[in-house]
Amino acid sequence: MSAPVVIVGTGLAGYNLAREFRKLDSQTPLLLITADDGRSYSKPMLSTGFGKHKDADGLSMAEPGAMAEQLQAEVRTHTRITGIDAGHQRLWIGEEAVPYRDLVLAWGAEVIRVPVAGDAGDALFPINDLEDYARFRLAAAGKRRVLLLGAGLIGCEFANDLSLGGYQVELVAPCEQVMPGLLHPAAAAAVQAGLESLGARFHLGPVLSSLNHASEGLLARLSDGTQIACDLVVSAVGLRPRIELAAAAGLAVNRGVMVDRQLRTSHANIYALGDCAEVDGLNLLYVMPLMACARALAQTLAGQPTAVRYGAMPVTVKTPVCPLVVSPPPRGLQGEWTVEGSGSDIKALCRDASGALLGYALTGAAVQEKLALNKQLPALLA
Amino acid sequence: MGKWQCVVCGFIYDEAAGLPEEGIAPGTRWEDIPADWICPDCGAGKMDFEMIELA
Protein backbone atom coordinates (compact mmCIF):
# COMPACT_ATOMS: atom_id res chain seq x y z
CA MET A 1 0.00 0.00 0.00
CA SER A 2 1.31 3.45 -0.91
CA ALA A 3 2.14 5.96 1.78
CA PRO A 4 -0.67 8.42 2.55
CA VAL A 5 -0.89 12.14 2.21
CA VAL A 6 -0.62 13.19 5.84
CA ILE A 7 -2.17 16.42 7.13
CA VAL A 8 -1.21 17.52 10.62
CA GLY A 9 -4.03 19.59 12.09
CA THR A 10 -7.83 19.43 11.78
CA GLY A 11 -8.75 23.08 12.02
CA LEU A 12 -10.18 24.99 9.09
CA ALA A 13 -6.86 24.57 7.23
CA GLY A 14 -6.54 20.80 7.63
CA TYR A 15 -10.16 19.86 7.03
CA ASN A 16 -10.66 22.27 4.15
CA LEU A 17 -7.54 21.07 2.41
CA ALA A 18 -8.73 17.48 2.82
CA ARG A 19 -12.12 18.42 1.42
CA GLU A 20 -10.62 20.17 -1.61
CA PHE A 21 -8.16 17.32 -2.18
CA ARG A 22 -10.92 14.73 -2.15
CA LYS A 23 -12.77 16.63 -4.88
CA LEU A 24 -9.76 15.92 -7.12
CA ASP A 25 -8.42 12.61 -5.83
CA SER A 26 -10.62 9.96 -4.27
CA GLN A 27 -7.96 7.22 -4.26
CA THR A 28 -4.82 8.33 -2.45
CA PRO A 29 -4.90 7.33 1.22
CA LEU A 30 -5.37 10.34 3.47
CA LEU A 31 -4.42 10.56 7.13
CA LEU A 32 -5.22 13.51 9.37
CA ILE A 33 -3.54 13.79 12.75
CA THR A 34 -4.66 16.18 15.47
CA ALA A 35 -3.67 16.84 19.06
CA ASP A 36 -7.27 17.92 19.69
CA ASP A 37 -10.53 15.97 19.72
CA GLY A 38 -10.89 16.33 15.95
CA ARG A 39 -14.31 17.92 15.92
CA SER A 40 -14.90 20.15 12.92
CA TYR A 41 -15.69 23.74 13.81
CA SER A 42 -15.13 27.21 12.48
CA LYS A 43 -12.64 29.09 14.61
CA PRO A 44 -14.02 32.56 13.76
CA MET A 45 -17.30 31.47 15.32
CA LEU A 46 -15.66 31.10 18.76
CA SER A 47 -16.09 34.82 19.30
CA THR A 48 -19.82 34.68 18.48
CA GLY A 49 -21.00 31.96 20.88
CA PHE A 50 -22.91 34.12 23.33
CA GLY A 51 -24.58 36.21 20.63
CA LYS A 52 -25.70 33.02 18.88
CA HIS A 53 -26.57 31.22 22.13
CA LYS A 54 -24.16 28.43 21.31
CA ASP A 55 -21.71 26.72 23.64
CA ALA A 56 -18.76 24.65 22.47
CA ASP A 57 -20.95 21.69 21.54
CA GLY A 58 -23.28 24.00 19.66
CA LEU A 59 -20.38 25.38 17.63
CA SER A 60 -19.14 21.92 16.71
CA MET A 61 -20.21 21.08 13.15
CA ALA A 62 -19.14 17.43 12.91
CA GLU A 63 -17.57 14.67 14.98
CA PRO A 64 -14.22 13.28 13.79
CA GLY A 65 -15.85 9.98 12.81
CA ALA A 66 -18.23 11.78 10.49
CA MET A 67 -15.36 13.78 9.05
CA ALA A 68 -13.35 10.60 8.43
CA GLU A 69 -16.29 9.09 6.56
CA GLN A 70 -16.98 12.22 4.56
CA LEU A 71 -13.32 12.61 3.60
CA GLN A 72 -12.57 8.89 3.14
CA ALA A 73 -9.70 9.48 5.51
CA GLU A 74 -8.29 8.20 8.74
CA VAL A 75 -8.49 10.81 11.51
CA ARG A 76 -6.25 10.23 14.50
CA THR A 77 -7.33 12.38 17.42
CA HIS A 78 -5.55 13.31 20.65
CA THR A 79 -2.33 12.45 18.86
CA ARG A 80 0.66 14.74 18.89
CA ILE A 81 3.46 14.30 16.40
CA THR A 82 6.88 14.52 17.99
CA GLY A 83 9.22 14.81 15.04
CA ILE A 84 9.62 14.93 11.26
CA ASP A 85 12.27 12.89 9.47
CA ALA A 86 12.22 14.72 6.16
CA GLY A 87 15.07 12.67 4.68
CA HIS A 88 13.11 9.42 5.04
CA GLN A 89 9.64 10.90 4.37
CA ARG A 90 8.26 9.89 7.71
CA LEU A 91 7.12 11.52 10.91
CA TRP A 92 7.25 10.37 14.48
CA ILE A 93 4.50 9.93 17.01
CA GLY A 94 6.62 9.00 19.98
CA GLU A 95 8.26 5.69 18.97
CA GLU A 96 5.88 5.12 16.07
CA ALA A 97 7.11 6.01 12.57
CA VAL A 98 4.44 7.11 10.08
CA PRO A 99 5.49 7.27 6.42
CA TYR A 100 4.03 9.91 4.15
CA ARG A 101 3.89 10.56 0.43
CA ASP A 102 3.36 14.25 1.10
CA LEU A 103 3.18 15.95 4.47
CA VAL A 104 1.11 19.07 5.12
CA LEU A 105 1.61 21.20 8.20
CA ALA A 106 -1.73 22.75 9.16
CA TRP A 107 -1.18 22.93 12.89
CA GLY A 108 -1.98 26.60 13.34
CA ALA A 109 -0.73 29.18 15.77
CA GLU A 110 -0.56 29.26 19.52
CA VAL A 111 -1.54 32.00 21.91
CA ILE A 112 1.14 34.26 23.25
CA ARG A 113 1.23 33.86 27.00
CA VAL A 114 2.14 36.82 29.13
CA PRO A 115 3.56 36.07 32.56
CA VAL A 116 1.35 37.43 35.33
CA ALA A 117 2.33 37.67 38.96
CA GLY A 118 0.00 36.51 41.72
CA ASP A 119 -1.76 33.34 42.79
CA ALA A 120 -4.60 33.25 40.24
CA GLY A 121 -2.87 32.32 36.99
CA ASP A 122 -5.31 29.41 36.78
CA ALA A 123 -8.13 31.88 36.18
CA LEU A 124 -6.53 33.12 32.97
CA PHE A 125 -8.11 31.62 29.84
CA PRO A 126 -6.67 31.73 26.34
CA ILE A 127 -9.29 30.89 23.70
CA ASN A 128 -7.58 29.47 20.64
CA ASP A 129 -9.60 26.36 19.79
CA LEU A 130 -12.89 24.62 20.53
CA GLU A 131 -11.54 22.82 23.59
CA ASP A 132 -10.27 26.10 25.05
CA TYR A 133 -13.70 27.52 24.41
CA ALA A 134 -15.41 24.64 26.20
CA ARG A 135 -13.16 25.17 29.25
CA PHE A 136 -13.86 28.89 29.23
CA ARG A 137 -17.63 28.46 28.95
CA LEU A 138 -17.59 26.03 31.85
CA ALA A 139 -15.60 28.46 34.00
CA ALA A 140 -17.71 31.45 32.96
CA ALA A 141 -21.05 29.85 33.81
CA GLY A 142 -22.66 31.77 36.65
CA LYS A 143 -19.91 34.40 36.65
CA ARG A 144 -20.47 38.05 35.84
CA ARG A 145 -17.24 40.02 35.45
CA VAL A 146 -14.66 39.29 32.77
CA LEU A 147 -11.32 40.99 32.38
CA LEU A 148 -10.10 40.86 28.77
CA LEU A 149 -6.41 41.19 27.96
CA GLY A 150 -5.75 42.55 24.50
CA ALA A 151 -7.54 45.07 22.28
CA GLY A 152 -6.82 43.41 18.95
CA LEU A 153 -9.39 41.92 16.62
CA ILE A 154 -10.12 38.94 18.87
CA GLY A 155 -10.18 41.04 22.04
CA CYS A 156 -12.73 43.38 20.50
CA GLU A 157 -14.86 40.53 19.15
CA PHE A 158 -14.92 38.89 22.57
CA ALA A 159 -15.70 42.22 24.24
CA ASN A 160 -18.78 42.48 22.01
CA ASP A 161 -19.83 38.87 22.43
CA LEU A 162 -19.30 38.71 26.20
CA SER A 163 -21.26 41.94 26.60
CA LEU A 164 -24.11 40.38 24.62
CA GLY A 165 -23.83 37.42 26.99
CA GLY A 166 -24.52 39.70 29.94
CA TYR A 167 -20.96 39.97 31.27
CA GLN A 168 -19.40 43.14 32.60
CA VAL A 169 -16.31 43.46 30.42
CA GLU A 170 -13.17 45.36 31.37
CA LEU A 171 -10.57 45.44 28.62
CA VAL A 172 -6.89 46.08 29.30
CA ALA A 173 -4.26 46.60 26.62
CA PRO A 174 -0.96 48.48 26.36
CA CYS A 175 -1.93 50.54 23.32
CA GLU A 176 -3.59 53.85 22.55
CA GLN A 177 -6.47 52.55 20.44
CA VAL A 178 -8.22 49.28 19.67
CA MET A 179 -6.70 47.18 16.89
CA PRO A 180 -3.52 49.23 16.51
CA GLY A 181 -1.63 48.38 13.36
CA LEU A 182 -4.79 47.16 11.68
CA LEU A 183 -7.14 50.08 11.96
CA HIS A 184 -7.23 53.82 11.29
CA PRO A 185 -7.71 55.71 14.60
CA ALA A 186 -11.05 57.20 13.51
CA ALA A 187 -12.48 53.74 12.86
CA ALA A 188 -10.94 52.45 16.09
CA ALA A 189 -12.68 55.21 18.03
CA ALA A 190 -16.02 54.27 16.44
CA VAL A 191 -15.62 50.61 17.41
CA GLN A 192 -14.51 51.48 20.93
CA ALA A 193 -17.50 53.82 21.38
CA GLY A 194 -19.78 51.04 20.17
CA LEU A 195 -18.36 48.57 22.67
CA GLU A 196 -18.60 51.18 25.45
CA SER A 197 -22.27 51.62 24.60
CA LEU A 198 -22.70 47.96 25.53
CA GLY A 199 -21.12 48.65 28.91
CA ALA A 200 -17.53 47.55 28.20
CA ARG A 201 -14.87 49.59 29.97
CA PHE A 202 -11.47 50.23 28.41
CA HIS A 203 -8.13 50.60 30.16
CA LEU A 204 -5.79 51.42 27.29
CA GLY A 205 -2.14 51.97 28.18
CA PRO A 206 -1.43 49.80 31.21
CA VAL A 207 -0.78 46.07 31.40
CA LEU A 208 -1.94 43.51 33.93
CA SER A 209 0.66 43.40 36.70
CA SER A 210 -0.81 40.83 39.03
CA LEU A 211 -3.84 38.64 39.48
CA ASN A 212 -4.81 37.28 42.86
CA HIS A 213 -7.70 35.44 44.43
CA ALA A 214 -9.79 37.77 46.54
CA SER A 215 -12.55 37.17 49.06
CA GLU A 216 -15.01 37.41 46.20
CA GLY A 217 -13.56 36.44 42.82
CA LEU A 218 -10.28 37.91 41.68
CA LEU A 219 -8.41 41.15 42.06
CA ALA A 220 -6.42 42.40 39.09
CA ARG A 221 -3.82 45.12 39.52
CA LEU A 222 -2.77 47.11 36.48
CA SER A 223 0.60 48.76 35.95
CA ASP A 224 -0.96 52.23 36.38
CA GLY A 225 -2.23 51.31 39.84
CA THR A 226 -5.83 50.64 38.84
CA GLN A 227 -7.47 47.75 40.66
CA ILE A 228 -10.24 45.77 39.01
CA ALA A 229 -12.43 43.15 40.66
CA CYS A 230 -13.33 40.36 38.26
CA ASP A 231 -14.29 36.69 38.15
CA LEU A 232 -12.12 35.44 35.33
CA VAL A 233 -9.64 36.68 32.75
CA VAL A 234 -9.60 36.03 29.01
CA SER A 235 -6.23 36.41 27.32
CA ALA A 236 -6.39 37.61 23.73
CA VAL A 237 -2.99 39.22 23.37
CA GLY A 238 -2.09 37.60 20.08
CA LEU A 239 -1.00 34.51 18.24
CA ARG A 240 2.36 33.11 17.19
CA PRO A 241 2.65 30.56 14.35
CA ARG A 242 3.84 27.16 15.55
CA ILE A 243 7.27 26.62 14.02
CA GLU A 244 9.29 24.61 16.57
CA LEU A 245 8.78 21.13 15.09
CA ALA A 246 9.40 22.43 11.59
CA ALA A 247 12.58 24.19 12.67
CA ALA A 248 13.77 21.07 14.46
CA ALA A 249 13.26 19.13 11.22
CA GLY A 250 15.47 21.59 9.39
CA LEU A 251 12.73 23.43 7.53
CA ALA A 252 13.22 27.13 6.88
CA VAL A 253 11.21 29.22 9.32
CA ASN A 254 10.79 32.91 9.92
CA ARG A 255 7.67 34.28 11.58
CA GLY A 256 5.93 31.18 10.28
CA VAL A 257 6.95 28.06 8.39
CA MET A 258 8.28 29.54 5.16
CA VAL A 259 6.59 28.33 1.98
CA ASP A 260 6.60 29.45 -1.63
CA ARG A 261 3.57 30.25 -3.75
CA GLN A 262 2.97 26.51 -4.17
CA LEU A 263 2.86 26.19 -0.37
CA ARG A 264 6.07 24.18 -0.50
CA THR A 265 8.46 24.39 2.45
CA SER A 266 12.21 24.33 2.00
CA HIS A 267 11.97 20.54 1.86
CA ALA A 268 10.43 18.49 -0.94
CA ASN A 269 7.13 16.77 -0.14
CA ILE A 270 6.43 18.99 2.87
CA TYR A 271 3.89 21.80 2.61
CA ALA A 272 2.23 24.22 5.00
CA LEU A 273 -0.90 26.37 4.99
CA GLY A 274 -3.09 28.28 7.39
CA ASP A 275 -2.01 30.14 10.50
CA CYS A 276 1.38 28.38 10.74
CA ALA A 277 2.45 29.24 7.19
CA GLU A 278 4.31 32.26 5.92
CA VAL A 279 3.34 32.32 2.25
CA ASP A 280 5.82 34.24 0.13
CA GLY A 281 6.51 36.41 3.18
CA LEU A 282 2.88 36.85 4.28
CA ASN A 283 1.52 35.27 7.47
CA LEU A 284 -2.17 36.17 7.40
CA LEU A 285 -4.24 34.65 10.20
CA TYR A 286 -7.57 34.86 8.41
CA VAL A 287 -9.94 32.43 6.73
CA MET A 288 -9.96 33.88 3.23
CA PRO A 289 -6.25 33.38 2.50
CA LEU A 290 -6.48 29.94 4.11
CA MET A 291 -9.25 28.92 1.70
CA ALA A 292 -7.25 30.20 -1.27
CA CYS A 293 -4.27 28.14 -0.09
CA ALA A 294 -6.41 25.01 0.43
CA ARG A 295 -7.70 25.16 -3.14
CA ALA A 296 -4.26 25.72 -4.65
CA LEU A 297 -2.52 23.08 -2.54
CA ALA A 298 -5.21 20.49 -3.30
CA GLN A 299 -4.41 20.95 -6.99
CA THR A 300 -0.70 20.58 -6.35
CA LEU A 301 -1.18 17.44 -4.27
CA ALA A 302 -3.42 16.01 -7.00
CA GLY A 303 -0.63 16.40 -9.54
CA GLN A 304 -1.29 19.89 -10.94
CA PRO A 305 1.32 22.20 -9.39
CA THR A 306 -0.59 25.42 -8.71
CA ALA A 307 0.57 28.72 -7.27
CA VAL A 308 -1.74 30.45 -4.82
CA ARG A 309 -2.92 33.95 -5.62
CA TYR A 310 -4.26 36.41 -3.09
CA GLY A 311 -6.55 39.15 -4.23
CA ALA A 312 -7.42 41.87 -1.78
CA MET A 313 -7.99 40.32 1.66
CA PRO A 314 -10.43 42.54 3.56
CA VAL A 315 -11.17 41.39 7.09
CA THR A 316 -14.66 41.52 8.54
CA VAL A 317 -14.51 42.05 12.28
CA LYS A 318 -17.41 40.62 14.25
CA THR A 319 -18.31 43.59 16.39
CA PRO A 320 -22.02 43.75 15.55
CA VAL A 321 -22.57 46.77 17.80
CA CYS A 322 -20.39 48.66 15.31
CA PRO A 323 -19.80 46.57 12.17
CA LEU A 324 -16.27 46.86 10.85
CA VAL A 325 -14.46 45.76 7.73
CA VAL A 326 -10.84 46.64 7.24
CA SER A 327 -8.26 46.16 4.53
CA PRO A 328 -4.91 47.53 5.65
CA PRO A 329 -2.62 48.88 2.91
CA PRO A 330 -0.23 46.15 1.61
CA ARG A 331 3.21 46.04 3.19
CA GLY A 332 5.66 48.59 1.85
CA LEU A 333 3.02 50.83 0.28
CA GLN A 334 2.53 54.32 1.63
CA GLY A 335 -0.53 56.45 1.13
CA GLU A 336 -2.57 59.30 2.49
CA TRP A 337 -5.68 58.69 4.56
CA THR A 338 -8.92 60.60 4.21
CA VAL A 339 -11.74 60.18 6.69
CA GLU A 340 -15.41 60.81 6.00
CA GLY A 341 -18.42 60.34 8.19
CA SER A 342 -18.99 60.72 11.89
CA GLY A 343 -20.12 58.84 14.95
CA SER A 344 -20.33 55.13 14.26
CA ASP A 345 -20.29 55.52 10.46
CA ILE A 346 -16.69 56.04 9.39
CA LYS A 347 -15.21 55.68 5.94
CA ALA A 348 -11.42 55.93 6.08
CA LEU A 349 -9.67 55.45 2.74
CA CYS A 350 -5.97 55.22 2.01
CA ARG A 351 -4.84 56.28 -1.47
CA ASP A 352 -1.43 56.54 -3.08
CA ALA A 353 -0.10 59.65 -4.85
CA SER A 354 -1.88 58.69 -8.09
CA GLY A 355 -5.20 58.31 -6.28
CA ALA A 356 -5.30 54.50 -6.39
CA LEU A 357 -6.98 52.88 -3.39
CA LEU A 358 -4.54 50.99 -1.15
CA GLY A 359 -6.70 50.17 1.86
CA TYR A 360 -9.69 51.15 3.93
CA ALA A 361 -11.48 50.91 7.21
CA LEU A 362 -15.27 51.05 7.14
CA THR A 363 -17.56 51.10 10.16
CA GLY A 364 -21.29 51.21 10.74
CA ALA A 365 -23.36 52.04 7.67
CA ALA A 366 -20.18 52.55 5.62
CA VAL A 367 -19.50 48.78 5.50
CA GLN A 368 -22.12 48.58 2.74
CA GLU A 369 -19.54 50.11 0.40
CA LYS A 370 -17.04 47.31 0.86
CA LEU A 371 -17.83 45.22 -2.23
CA ALA A 372 -17.57 48.25 -4.50
CA LEU A 373 -14.30 49.32 -2.85
CA ASN A 374 -12.86 45.79 -2.88
CA LYS A 375 -12.75 45.94 -6.68
CA GLN A 376 -10.35 48.88 -6.44
CA LEU A 377 -7.96 47.31 -3.94
CA PRO A 378 -4.57 45.94 -5.02
CA ALA A 379 -3.97 42.17 -4.87
CA LEU A 380 -1.69 41.01 -2.05
CA LEU A 381 -0.12 38.19 -4.08
CA ALA A 382 -0.93 38.81 -7.71
CA MET B 1 -37.39 36.16 1.19
CA GLY B 2 -35.02 34.62 3.69
CA LYS B 3 -31.57 35.19 5.07
CA TRP B 4 -28.76 32.65 5.00
CA GLN B 5 -25.65 32.65 7.12
CA CYS B 6 -22.22 31.26 6.29
CA VAL B 7 -21.32 28.71 8.96
CA VAL B 8 -17.61 29.51 8.62
CA CYS B 9 -17.51 33.28 9.07
CA GLY B 10 -21.02 34.46 9.86
CA PHE B 11 -21.59 36.35 6.60
CA ILE B 12 -25.32 36.86 6.02
CA TYR B 13 -26.84 36.60 2.56
CA ASP B 14 -30.12 38.45 2.39
CA GLU B 15 -32.23 37.19 -0.52
CA ALA B 16 -34.18 40.44 -0.64
CA ALA B 17 -31.05 42.55 -0.98
CA GLY B 18 -29.02 40.18 -3.17
CA LEU B 19 -25.40 41.12 -3.87
CA PRO B 20 -25.67 43.58 -6.76
CA GLU B 21 -21.90 44.27 -6.70
CA GLU B 22 -21.33 40.59 -7.42
CA GLY B 23 -23.95 40.44 -10.11
CA ILE B 24 -26.57 38.81 -7.91
CA ALA B 25 -29.78 40.76 -8.27
CA PRO B 26 -32.00 41.66 -5.33
CA GLY B 27 -34.56 38.94 -4.82
CA THR B 28 -32.27 36.10 -5.92
CA ARG B 29 -33.12 33.03 -3.90
CA TRP B 30 -30.33 31.10 -2.25
CA GLU B 31 -31.00 27.99 -4.31
CA ASP B 32 -30.58 30.02 -7.51
CA ILE B 33 -27.06 31.15 -6.63
CA PRO B 34 -24.47 29.25 -8.70
CA ALA B 35 -22.81 26.22 -7.07
CA ASP B 36 -19.35 27.72 -7.59
CA TRP B 37 -20.24 30.86 -5.65
CA ILE B 38 -17.98 31.51 -2.69
CA CYS B 39 -18.65 33.55 0.42
CA PRO B 40 -17.44 37.12 -0.19
CA ASP B 41 -16.12 37.43 3.36
CA CYS B 42 -14.20 34.18 3.87
CA GLY B 43 -14.04 32.26 0.61
CA ALA B 44 -15.94 29.22 1.88
CA GLY B 45 -17.75 27.45 -0.94
CA LYS B 46 -21.52 27.18 -1.32
CA MET B 47 -21.20 23.44 -1.89
CA ASP B 48 -19.14 22.75 1.21
CA PHE B 49 -20.90 25.02 3.61
CA GLU B 50 -24.60 24.95 3.10
CA MET B 51 -25.45 28.18 4.75
CA ILE B 52 -28.01 27.95 7.50
CA GLU B 53 -31.37 29.63 7.15
CA LEU B 54 -31.99 32.25 9.78
CA ALA B 55 -35.36 32.17 11.43
UniProtKB/TrEMBL annotation, chain A:
InterPro entries: FAD-bd_OxRdtase (IPR050260), FAD/NAD-bd_sf (IPR036188), FAD/NAD-binding_dom (IPR023753), Rbx-bd (IPR041364). Gene3D superfamilies: 3.30.390.120, FAD/NAD(P)-binding domain (3.50.50.60). The keyword Cytoplasm applies. Its cofactor is FAD. Residues 307-377 form the Rubredoxin binding domain. It is found in: Cytoplasm. This is Pyridine nucleotide-disulfide oxidoreductase.
TrEMBL record, chain B:
Fe cation binds at C6, C9, C39, C42. SUPFAM superfamilies: Rubredoxin-like. Belongs to the rubredoxin family. GO terms for biological process: alkane catabolic process. Residues 1-52 form the Rubredoxin-like domain. GO terms for cellular component: cytoplasm. It holds the Pfam family Rubredoxin. PROSITE patterns: RUBREDOXIN, RUBREDOXIN_LIKE. Pathway: Hydrocarbon metabolism; alkane degradation. Its main location: cytoplasm. Involved in the hydrocarbon hydroxylating system, which transfers electrons from NADH to rubredoxin reductase and then through rubredoxin to alkane 1 monooxygenase. This is Rubredoxin. It is found in: Cytoplasm. InterPro entries: Rubredoxin, Rubredoxin-like_dom, Rubredoxin_dom, Rubredoxin_ET, Rubredoxin_Fe_BS. Keywords: Electron transport, Iron, Metal-binding, Transport. Binds 1 Fe(3+) ion per subunit.
